[in-house]
Design brief:
The protein is α+β, with helices and mostly antiparallel strands and 187 residues long. The chain contains 4 helices and 13 strands.
C-alpha cells in the first residue's frame, strides 16, 4: 500500500489524529506518534498475497476460536496507530474506548511490504508491533520474491526466522504454512 503523509509536515496530537481518521470517509490514516500517513491503494500482487495469507490463517485457526481480519482493523500500541494488512485475534478483544475503537491484543500481525511502505513497515511499525504484550508473531511478507521474515515471541525475547522460496514452509502456532500457498498466483 502507498502511504501519503497528511497533512504534509504537520505534527499532530493523538486526539488530532483520531479526529482526522474518524472524519476521513474514503481514506484511512496511520499515526507514528507525531505524523499521520494516508493509506492509498495497493498493487494486484499485494492484494493477492494479503488475500492468500488471510485464507491460510483463517482456514487453520477458525477452529481455535480465532478471528482473522484483513486491512480494516486498527491496532494501537502506545501512541501509535496502524492498519496492518492482517490481524489475528484469539479470544476476547481488548479495545480502546476511542471512536472507532482500536485493538490492543492481537496475537499475530502481518504486513505485506510495498516499495512505498517498506521502510515504515520495517522500522517504527515493526518496533511498535514487537512492543505489544499479547503479540506472539509478526510477519513481514515481501512482494518482489517469495520471502517472509517471521518474528516469534520466545518469552521476553523475539526470534527472527526467514522462509524463502515457494518450496519453503513456515511454522506458525504449531501449524505449517507453505509459501506456495501464500504466493499462489504471484510466483
Amino acid at each position: 500500500m502507498n502511504l501519503v503523509e497528511a497533512p504534509p509536515g504537520s505534527r499532530l496530537t493523538r486526539q488530532q489524529y483520531l479526529c482526522l481518521d474518524l472524519g476521513a470517509e474514503e481514506a484511512r490514516f496511520e499515526f507514528d506518534g507525531e505524523r499521520a500517513y494516508m493509506m492509498a491503494g495497493a498493487s494486484l500482487e499485494h492484494n493477492r498475497i494479503a488475500s492468500n495469507v488471510h485464507a491460510a490463517l483463517n482456514d487453520r485457526h477458525r477452529e481455535r476460536g480465532c478471528d482473522v481480519f484483513q486491512s480494516d482493523m486498527r491496532v494501537r500500541a502506545g501512541e501509535r496507530y496502524t492498519y496492518p494488512d492482517i490481524v489475528m485475534l484469539c479470544g476476547e478483544p481488548e479495545l480502546t474506548d476511542e471512536n472507532p475503537p482500536s485493538l490492543l491484543n492481537p496475537e499475530l500481525l502481518v504486513e505485506v511490504l510495498s516499495p512505498s511502505t517498506e521502510e515504515r513497515d520495517r522500522s517504527w511499525k515493526l518496533d511498535q508491533y514487537l512492543d505489544i504484550e499479547r503479540l506472539q508473531e509478526c510477519w513481514l511478507v515481501e512482494t518482489d520474491a517469495p520471502r517472509i521474515q517471521q518474528y516469534v515471541r520466545d518469552g521476553d525475547a523475539w526470534t527472527r526466522r526467514v522462509a524463502q522460496g515457494t518450496d519453503a514452509t513456515l511454522k506458525s502456532f504449531g501449524l505449517d504454512v507453505a509459501l506456495s500457498e501464500i504466493y499462489r498466483r504471484v510466483f
